[in-house]
Amino acid sequence: MAMTAERIALGTSAVHVSRVGLGLHAIGNLPPGSEGLAHDLIRRALEAGIDLFDTAPEYGQGAAERRLGEVIDAVGRPEIVISSKVGYLIRPIRRGPLVRRILREGLTNGPAGYRHLWREGRRMSRSALARIGAGRVPGSVADGPRRADGLRLGGLVDWSPDGIRRSVEDSLERLGVDHIDLILMHDPEMHVREATTGAYRALVQLREEGTVSAIGIGINHVDAAIRISTAVDLDAVLIAGRYTLLDQSAAMTLFPLAQRRRVTILAAGVFNSGILADPRAAPFYDYARAGRRTRARAAAMEAICLRYGVPLRTAALRFTAAHPAVGSVILGAGSMAHLEDDLAALERPIPGALWRDLMGAGLLPEDSVAPAD
């Protein structure tokens, strides 16, 4: 049975999704005029049996949701399960000094920029960081044409109950639907208190009203994911980059907790920002240029994979998808070639000896869950 044909339930909700999903970050960031390609990528995923589409207001400043909505308008809703996010409102903003600094330092990827500023707090004043946490600074600034009034669209952090409701209402409008299957709180690691109190209560109310069917979080940090998953009842946790060939940290603590609490794991970021897709052409790890040791480890993995005629990206995708705690693995593709490669990788047999060699070389833990072909 093809992996894309399998279906699983999201937590204890009535929502069922394919074991493979398509993330729309890259599709949202395709330039204006690429709507045809965006639509073709979504339609190709549907043809392959994928019905879970993960989007967010910040992906292309609303473009990902609009492009998905255009396909829904053409093919109908029953075939598509929508996952979107809250925590950011897309609003016109002015380029003040702090926004210009975010742009100048390349911190335009919204949550990734926040994480960078959080780790490197000395780069900005305490007051600037406080304003970001309070939601008074845009998380990202679109690089598209400036509007006639001189403003650009940007993501504004807003974790208030009213902000959560406005975010869902905006997404419904962009998608052209009257309900969303799964809503994830987007990058809540800096907003754990809000995510477990007012924001969560707002989503529960929206679920009771029938606007939302399932609730979860989309996050990169295992510790914060555990704190939130322990404090409130979730249907799903989308964890990005924390169960890959290079990082299995989610498997040690988050996965067992999720299984005990009947929370479905959606695994994204399987290529760790690119290095596991191509260690030479895309040597980026966790939103930054990979360090020397990380590049060397990825190169050593690739050398073993190529001895068996298996691309590293294929092994990376199959490894993440194989863990029994992973309900669905989220692909990400901005080109038809990448999507076709990933779809083929899901069905490609991989010799068991490849995994044994990776473990024998100390590149994977001895107790790793290897795909069974």
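Second entry:
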Amino acid sequence: MSKQPRDDANYPIPVLGYKYNGGQQIGLGPNTLSARLSSSVRVVSLYATADCFFEVCDDSGSANTSSSHFLPAGIYLDVALGSDNNAALTRKYIAVTSDNAGTLYISERI
């Protein structure tokens, strides 16, 4: 049985805390930039001030406007990074690119 808090219909509410000093910012623009994430993090919350494209990578990686994931401006999105059993997750990055200037905010969740 789940030990998570429950809503009025008795369904579990997933709750993750924010990692201490786990916030990052990336300036958006036409070049791909990436942020390294802590190895203990399994979920990140993303918020962008401009439309952008992102990838979750196990190296510094790259993102592009033709096959990467789209994040519209002003949307708060939680992204799972994988399970504890995946050894490749010891190095995690978020790569991002955009045709517009702005900022991507990353919150590491634990």
